[in-house]
Each structure stands twice: as structure tokens, then as C-alpha cells.
């Protein structure tokens, strides 16, 4: 067979010689897209208007500072760089200088060298020194202070086993500031200070009906005068009148708010808002809510959830809300003819006589259309106190009114 040198030479050519050549404009466009993608990767979660430098001010919160740099403040942990060699490197104080460091390719926020916080002291006429450079809190302290130690979530067993108020002197039926309480079964105690609590409503999981615990509200504080059964206590601070049946427990100091780093809830973690602690019906910014998830599910202080509205099944009002269409009085020119209460799906004949000619008339039937409401984010909450099956969270911001029963889940980027 004769050789085919041309075919042989063609097969030996590099494969790229057979690929269509890109035009100069196409190559330029590809370069622009690559540069844009690189810039976006370098920018990361930072806001486009994020400052390069910020001096921490008294009254700041970690969440508020994060909002200056990030559109999603709960991603602070991803870009925060704790300076090695500095005591408590994750804490931030007034006077600290925060800078954006882009030297590593991805932006990081860190304290500027030498920015150890503004060490300010105040001397009163009594020569008392007060430190004003305490670390800034993660969330507003005044919003959560009443809920740091009270109320608490307890179990039925803990309620049954706790010492309780059995009566008062002089046949009183309630007690207030300065009054004496008789309390069963305080025969030994390591503390003289006690909290008086009143068992409240039960929290149940709205999906499974599991009993999650009971709310124990603070009633008063009392000082132990004499141990015994009953023991005697004197009310030193009163929020409400003490009643027979109120429980007591050793007093616990309110835990200070520390600058914990917010973190998004883990993937797949879902729950619901089961209560609002200040009794309002519509929940907004800085309200405190209770969630049906706690330490058992991996919820910790600093866990961030987004609240979502939607997901419920609704009836299609165009198709399914159809009743009582009167074919004799309506015509195709009427809106109700097409969007009325019945679906027109054919023709029927009247039957006055089987042998008589029968006029046609419209046949109407009830439709069964339904749809699922798309979910939309209504706000973001951060957990500041976690119990075994329940946690308390502060609403950091709300796009609209949040309601009890809404779903909470890991926040999605918008």
C-alpha cells in the first residue's frame, strides 16, 4: 500500500494546533474574570467599605466591631488573628487598635503592635481607683444582664428535691423585704446567701412534645439565719412577694460577660423559638428568646442562628378557594368566572327528561391546590446561656418582626 506522508505528518502535529484560537478580546475577558475572582478571594468575608484601621471605643461590643468589618458578623472567627505573646490575645479592650492585615493573601484582622488597650484610671475624692479598661463584651450587657443567672431552666426532679418555703411567722400568707421565711430541710449549707425561685411554665419541644424543663423565675434573695428543718431565712431583696411553695437554692453570682467569639451553628442543626422571655408577642432586636436546643445538641455560648419564616403548607387561593359558583349569573367577562371559587373543568347536560334535548352547561369541581411558602430570614440570634435541652439567645438584629415558633438554623449568606 502506498504511504501517505501527508496524513502521517498531520497526525504527528501537536493537538493544540487543531484547537480554535481565542481572539484577543476573549483572552482579555478571561484575564479580567480571573483578576475579579482573585480579588474576591482576597477580599474574603470583609465588607467592601471595611476600614483598614479602627480604634476600640468604650461602649463597643465585639458584635458591633465585627459589623464594621463584615457583612456577616458571626464569621469574625474566620478573620480574627490573635497576636501571640499577648496576654488574653482573643480579648479586646478600649484603646486597642485593630488593623486589616493583607500580607498573607487573605485578609486578617489583628491588634496593632503595641495596642494593648487604653489603661485609664479614675481617682475619686476618696482616692479609690477604678479600672475602666475592662474587656469589651461580645453583646450588650444591659440587654442580657437580667437573664445571666435568673431565670433558669430546671427539671421536675430538681424542683421536687429543692428546699421550699413552708410558712411564715404570725400566720402571714406572703412575705416581703425584711420578713422571715420558714424553709424545709436546710440542715447544712456552705453559703449564707440563698435565692428564692418560683417554678413556672413548662417548656416542651413543639415538634416532639418532649418536656425540656421548667422555668424557675427569681422571686427574692434571702440570708440564712438558722439551719434546721425548718430553717429560717430573712428576705434581703424582693422582686415579688414570697409565697408558700417557692423553692430556694444557694445564691449564684451573675457570670460576667466575656468576649467569646461568635460562631455559626453547625450544619444541619435546626430548632425553633419556643418562648420570648420578656413577654412580648412580636420579637425585635435585643429581645431574649428561648430555643428548644441546648448542650445536648451541641449548642454553646456564642452559637449563632438565623431565624427563618416560611415553610408552612398553604392553600392555593386561586385554585383551592372555590365555592358556590353560579353558572347562570356569571359570564366569561366576570373575574369570578375565571378566578372564582370553583374550577371549570368541562360541560354537563341538564336532565329534566331522558328523551328531551338537553342544553349544555359548565361543569365545576373543587380544586385541591397547595403550595409551600418559601422561607425568608427574619433575623439573627446569638446564644449567651445554654442549658441541657434549652438555650437563651439574644436577637442581634431583625429584618422584620420575629414570632414564637419560627425555625432557627445555621445562617446562610445572602
Strand and helix layout:
Layout: H1 5-12, H2 24-43, E1 53-55, H3 62-69, H4 76-79, E2 97-101, E3 108-111, E4 121-123, E5 129-131, H5 141-144, E6 152-154, H6 156-161, E7 165-167, E8 174-175, E9 180-183, E10 193-204, E11 211-226, E12 231-238, E13 242-243, E14 247-250, E15 263-264, E16 271-276, E17 288-291, E18 303-309, E19 313-315, H7 335-339, E20 343-349, E21 360-365, E22 370-372, E23 376-386, E24 391-398, E25 407-409
Parallel strand pairs: 15-18
Antiparallel strand pairs: 1-2, 2-3, 4-5, 6-11, 7-9, 8-13, 9-12, 10-11, 10-14, 11-12, 16-17, 16-25, 17-24, 18-23, 18-25, 19-22, 20-21, 23-24
Characterise the protein shown here.
With 414 residues, this protein is an alpha+beta fold. The chain has helices spanning 5-12, 24-43, 62-69, 76-79, 141-144, 156-161, 335-339, and strands spanning 53-55, 97-101, 108-111, 121-123, 129-131, 152-154, 165-167, 174-175, 180-183, 193-204, 211-226, 231-238, 242-243, 247-250, 263-264, 271-276, 288-291, 303-309, 313-315, 343-349, 360-365, 370-372, 376-386, 391-398, 407-409. Helices cover 13% and strands 32% of the residues. The strands form seven sheets. Strands 6, 7, 9, 10, 11, 12 and 14 form a seven-stranded antiparallel beta sheet that branches. A six-stranded antiparallel beta barrel has the order 16-17-24-23-18-25. A three-stranded antiparallel beta sheet has the order 1-2-3, with no helix packed on it. A hairpin with a 4-residue loop joins strand 23 (376-386) and strand 24.
Amino acid at each position: 500500500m502506498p504511504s501517505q506522508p501527508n496524513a502521517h505528518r498531520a497526525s504527528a502535529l501537536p493537538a493544540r494546533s487543531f484547537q480554535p484560537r481565542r481572539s484577543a478580546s476573549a483572552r482579555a475577558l478571561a484575564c479580567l474574570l480571573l483578576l475579579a475572582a482573585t480579588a474576591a478571594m482576597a477580599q474574603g468575608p470583609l465588607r467592601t467599605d471595611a476600614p483598614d484601621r479602627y480604634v476600640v471605643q468604650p461602649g463597643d461590643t465585639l458584635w458591633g466591631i465585627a459589623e464594621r468589618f463584615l457583612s456577616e458578623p458571626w464569621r469574625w472567627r474566620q478573620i480574627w488573628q490573635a497576636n501571640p505573646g499577648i496576654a488574653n490575645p482573643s480579648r479586646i479592650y478600649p484603646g486597642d487598635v485593630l488593623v486589616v492585615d493583607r500580607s498573607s493573601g487573605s485578609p486578617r484582622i489583628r491588634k496593632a503592635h503595641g495596642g494593648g488597650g487604653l489603661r485609664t484610671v479614675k481617682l475619686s475624692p476618696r482616692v479609690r481607683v477604678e479600672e475602666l479598661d475592662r474587656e469589651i463584651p461580645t453583646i450588650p450587657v444591659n440587654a442580657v444582664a437580667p437573664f445571666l443567672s435568673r431565670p433558669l431552666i430546671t427539671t421536675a426532679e430538681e424542683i421536687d428535691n429543692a428546699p421550699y418555703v413552708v410558712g411564715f411567722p404570725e400566720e402571714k400568707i406572703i412575705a416581703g423585704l425584711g420578713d422571715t421565711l420558714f424553709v424545709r430541710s436546710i440542715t447544712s449549707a456552705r453559703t449564707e446567701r440563698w435565692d428564692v425561685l418560683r417554678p413556672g411554665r413548662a417548656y416542651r419541644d413543639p415538634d416532639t412534645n418532649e418536656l425540656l424543663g421548667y422555668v424557675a423565675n427569681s422571686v427574692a434573695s434571702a440570708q440564712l439565719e438558722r439551719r434546721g428543718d425548718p430553717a429560717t431565712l430573712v428576705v434581703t431583696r424582693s422582686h415579688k412577694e414570697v409565697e408558700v411553695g417557692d423553692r430556694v437554692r444557694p445564691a449564684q453570682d451573675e457570670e460576667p460577660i466575656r468576649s467569646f467569639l461568635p460562631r455559626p451553628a453547625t450544619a444541619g442543626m435546626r430548632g425553633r423559638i419556643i418562648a420570648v422571655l420578656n413577654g412580648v408577642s412580636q420579637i425585635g432586636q435585643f429581645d431574649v428568646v428561648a430555643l428548644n436546643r441546648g448542650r445536648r445538641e451541641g449548642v454553646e455560648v456564642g452559637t449563632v442562628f438565623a431565624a427563618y419564616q416560611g415553610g408552612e403548607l398553604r392553600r392555593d387561593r386561586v385554585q383551592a378557594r372555590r365555592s358556590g359558583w353560579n353558572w347562570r349569573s356569571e359570564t366569561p367577562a366576570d373575574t369570578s368566572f375565571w378566578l372564582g371559587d370553583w374550577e371549570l373543568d368541562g360541560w354537563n347536560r341538564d336532565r329534566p327528561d331522558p328523551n328531551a334535548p338537553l342544553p349544555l352547561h359548565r361543569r365545576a369541581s373543587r380544586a385541591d391546590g397547595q403550595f409551600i411558602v418559601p422561607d425568608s430570614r427574619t433575623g439573627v440570634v446569638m446564644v449567651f446561656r445554654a442549658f441541657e435541652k434549652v438555650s437563651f439567645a439574644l436577637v442581634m438584629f431583625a429584618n422584620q418582626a420575629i414570632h414564637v415558633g419560627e425555625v432557627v438554623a445555621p445562617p446562610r449568606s445572602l
